Amino acid sequence: MARERVEQQPAAATGMTLVVMVGLGVAFLLFMAFLNVVKSGNLLNETNLLYATLIFYFGAATLYLGFGITGTPNYIRFASLATWAGLLANTGAVAHRWYDAGHPPFASIYEMLLSFVWTLAVLTLIAEKKFKVKVIGTVTMPVAIVGVVLMQLLRTEVHPLVPALQSTWLHVHVTLAMLAYAACALSFALAMMFLIQDKMKTETFLAATSIFTITTYVATLTRFEKWGGLSVAAWNPEEKSEIFIAKGVRLFVVIPDLGWLLLLVLAAVAAPLVFYVLWRKTGNDAHIDMANRAVFLSILLQTLALVFFIARARDGHYFSLDADGQFPTSLAASPFILSGLVGGIFVSLLYLLLLWRRADLERMLPSADELDRIIYKTIAIAFPLLTLMIAAGAYWANRTWGSYWSWDPKETWAAITWLVYAGYLHMRITRGWRGRRAAYFAILGFAVVMFTFFGVTYLLPGLHAYA
Amino acid sequence: MATSLPRKIWQTLGAIKTGVILLILTVILSAAGTLILQRPATDPDEIQRAYSPQMLRLLDGLGLTDVFHAWWFVLLLSLVSLSIIAASVQRFPNAWRFFARPYKSPDENFRKALPTHTLIPVKEEEAALSIAERVLHKKGFHPERIVRENSFSLFGERNRISEMAVYIVHASLLLIFLGGIIDAEFGWRAFLSLTRGEQSSEVQAQNGPKRYLPFAVRCDGAGQENYADGTPKRWWSNLTVLKDGREILHKQIVVNDPLVYGGVRFYQASYGKTGKVDKLVLTATSRQSLDPKDITLGLNETAALDPDTTVRLAEFFPDYVVGDGHVYARSNDLENPAAHLVVESKKSGQAINYWLPAIPGVEQNASSTYEFQGKDVQMAYFTGLEVSHEPGQWGVWAGVVLMGLGLVVVFYLVHSRIWVVPVRDASGQTQLWIGGTANKNKDAFEQRFSDVVKQIESELKLSQPEVPQASVAALTEK
Q1: E strands within A270-324?
Q2: Using the beta-carbon criterion (under 8 Å), do B256 and A404 form an inter-chain contact?
């Protein structure tokens, strides 16, 4: 068994190798960055600070993952250190942005991500130091990295606030939203850990992973696939914005062949589910082995799809169905596809982590009962915050548009989020729901939060066009 | 005993299962209302484009293109409210009994059944009780001595309000719903567009006739400020409220700061060009004296040029085109302006159409005794005001505040109780029975309870040093 092998190795030695490697990597990247900075002459601008943030978070994530896999306590110390350093740079970037823009960084999706990543890092350190949930960084730091990478692709100019956004109530509203959503994210991560501690079968996680990735790819394909290619919004690199042919109508271009590739990957991510179903039918463990190998293969294919997508979306001009000529596109024009692809890989990797290191994870995590209580506590924090967030938003809307509730999609989905968590609280308090059912509810709640945050912004029309 | 139908319905409404089913229905239908294009928020053309005619007919028929105003959605929300009321009313009496008449003298059965309790041997009952009382007081439990016919006990508690918190939250939700219903029934939204100097007491309701206000609003000026890159930074309007011809209130409103008067709110909603001229400055030169003279005209205003001659601004086009011998406005932008002046002579009674610039076919410029040149033009801007009357909003805000408080109590205030009863064990030794319970967060309470017990023990030890440590029988089950 792999686990025995790890335990035979002297812990301190393995600990130091990775720490030294990550340290050297971080130092190398910082040095390279510094050479560039010296050329441009401006050390502490937002781009550099964000780059430093990215490097440190990357180091932290590697060490947290190392800890997640081997359980070497040494990693955690250095991972925290890297997180602290990243947080410092991140704080600098936030402050810089705030100073430049003259308003708190909540006005665009870029600024929201900046604040979100900051909040996430702070919460990670709190969860680690105060609640002793040490592996939390294994989940949150990769998310933070995805956030910082996404930020590099989104528009970054400081936009002056349009009159409707110049309100203290807006800042109250958005701050509360960030805090509430971060608490929801924490309850989701804890719910996942609960399921591990609650002895949910690894095979069930396999099926869930497969279903998640299948859903992602089916959603991407049904929405963007066109004649074997991917239909994505055209991008004007000078203006850093999508190209519109009429008010609210985007110009789409087709990147050829990628549709077929995604279809292939869909088959690959569906394979584990097929083997899982076979295993359920026959009980033959060979099928599960096949399924696990299929997950491994699907990760390779997913990575390939991501690389191709990034390479082709960043480079080249493509034909459009709506206008003559060829137009460029950009990753920033299709954040959905990008986050879908990255999310799929991330979830599959987490499954592999669970598959290989389940025993270590179970040893390191708090007990199921403890986790159940912490989940309830985080939701007890999230729910009042959600309530106040909605109230502050309503008050702001009333001062701006003369109506506190207009059933706009974002409002409606915020209300739905609120109702889901209200449902959780009722079932828990009056029906005594504990454990697994409560954990499912926490997972559902976070799924709705994610849809409210991203889905509504990109999929549904409405007044919340700013963010 | 057979239950009557109304009673059965009442019971069903109050059941948690009904509540959850209603919640799920609300969630599903609200979600549908965001996924399907909604008539009030979308362009009619866009809906036509998005759905096939049959599909659209079906959606319209089911009310799915305006979910949030459909009768069945209103019905659903009413059922949710009824369910909350029923559930609260059914559970309230019990909770109220618990709240209003706290259990202060624990009997023997209760003492045995309570999971968190302990026994401390004491020498002197009275002294020990005083110590316990002091410790409870210090820990914020506000103890009282309960003397009954055949029992004596100390009772202390914290945050009894916590037992009522759920009802506070439910009541606040009903208050919010009530505010919403009042607004849906009696509230209205309208639009008012004013140019500088204009006043009005009638507003155009959003879906319906004009509405007359018991007062008038005058616009004393409006404007826009831009950022350096040309995007708008601020819109403002100076408004005056007039009642019976008297000025009552002045206020400059900006986008996030409305004018409120008599329950009606005026919001800065839009600002734009009317296409009308506000002030046109002309240089008039008499053909005889060649003496230039500046005059300023508004639309339909007349100015005297000399004792005999007057000029009137009859028409103004910010962006004109000529077709079929007529002059038309092409846009409201000041691109290609034309002014139509009428020069009149009292003596001859002659009226001459003077066009600036000279437009062949309509102009009679040559017959005028004066020549005109444009010097400056200021266009009139309108300020668009969203007007709303929401008499129920105070219910909503009161509900929101109450809910915030209620939630804090629900989640963070724990009703904890501690009883202290002097008892005798089999050998006749006096002991203090100390027990406690909390309605939530039991781990934290057990910690607090053991702190209280330890404190009492240590103070007892100070006052009665001869009680041996070994005989202290602390017992905390579970």
Answers
A1: 317-319
A2: no
